[in-house]
Amino acid sequence: MLHNEKELIKRITQGETELFAHIAEHYAQAVYALIVRIVGNNEDAEELTQDVLLRVFENLPYFNFKSSFSTWLYRIAYNCAISFARRKRQPLYPIEENRLRLVGDDDLERMEAAAENEQQIEALTRAINRLDAEERALITLFYYEQRSIGECAEIMSQSQSNIKVRLHRIRKKLYILIQNETE
After folding, report:
1. Intervals of the chain under pLDDT 50
2. In 3-state terms, what secondary structure has residue 27?
3. What does the pLDDT read at residue 122?
4. What domains can be seen in the chain, in order of their start residue?
5. Per-residue pLDDT tens for 105-138?
6. CB-based contact 19:12 (threshold 8 Å)
7. Is the pTM of this model over 0.85?
8. DSSP conformation class of 90
9. Of 60, 74, 89, 65, nearest to 137 (Cα)?
10. Quick one: the chain helix, strand, coil %, rounded to 5?
11. In sequence order, what DSSP letters do the residues of 117-138 get, joined into one string?
């Protein structure tokens, strides 16, 4: 977080627009990291990052400080990346509902513990890339960006309980994708 972010935002909205460079510099890499994990392409992510920063600048006067600035910014980035991914219609890898039910919590714990070795990390990365854009976004926000359940819920416009359920289902889906790859 920038030092006295609230004051900086107020000054920008009062006409000192050149100060937005501090915000852009501070958040650009994090926004890019989120977007590239959702869309899976560096060039698209760079372009979308610029679009997000422009949208943030244009909408800064409407930011009401009800949430943290970073949560608001991530929501804009998330919406922009998801819209882009939907337009591109990336291929999905559906998994039957009954297969998800067969994956137990013990299986998930073993998978998470095994992710320490390099091959498992590579398999996990490939599995994450096979998730749909919204699932990748949630994994990115929660695990990579270390956002809380509450922040993920706010960014993704969902309830906290829905986020918890989705994370659990995504972990099961990742387990199945990794198992399919190793068979």
Report:
1. 1, 92
2. helix
3. 83
4. 5-88 (1.10.1740.10), 97-182 (1.10.10.10)
5. 666 666 666 555 777 778 888 888 888 889 999 9
6. yes
7. no
8. -
9. 74
10. 80, 0, 20
11. SHHHHHHHHHHHHTS-HHHHHH
User: Could you tell me the two tokens for 135?
Assistant: 């699932």
Both structure tokens of 143? 């695990």
One-letter identity of residue 87? R
Give the amino acid at 77.
A
Give the C-alpha distances (Å, rounded to integers) separating 64 from 18, 20, 73, 170. 21, 17, 12, 33
Could you tell me the two tokens for 71? 């949560």
8 Å CB contact between 170 and 137: no
Q: Cα dihedral angle (38, 102, 165, 71), rounded to 10 degrees?
A: -20
Q: Which pLDDT score, from 0 to 100, does residue 92 have?
A: 47
The tokens 């922040």 sit on which residue?
151
Residue corresponding to tokens 């949630």:
138
